[in-house]
Amino acid sequence: MSKSAIVIGAGVIGSSVAWELAKNGYSVTVVDKESGAGQGSTSASSAVIRFNYSTFDSVALAWESYRGWQNWPAHLGIKLDHYAEAVNAGTVMVEVPFMPFASTEALFKAAGIPYEIWGAKELAEAIPGFDTGKYWPPKKITDDDFWDEANGELTAMYTKDGGYVNDPLLAAQNLAAAAVANGAVMKFRTAVTGIIKNDKRVLGVSLSDGSELRADIVVNVGGPWSGKINEMAGVGEDFTISVRPMRQEVHHIATPLNLLTGPMIGDMDLGTYMRPSPGGAILLGGTEPECEPLEWVDDLDNVNMVRTQALFESQVMRVARRLPALQMPSSPSGIVGIYDVAADWTPIYDKTNLPGYYVAMGTSGNQFKNAPFVGKLMFKLISEVEAGVDHDNNPVEIVGEYTGHKINIGTYSRKRKINENSSGTVMG
Question: Are 93 and 52 in contact (CB under 8 A)?
Answer without folding.
Answer: yes
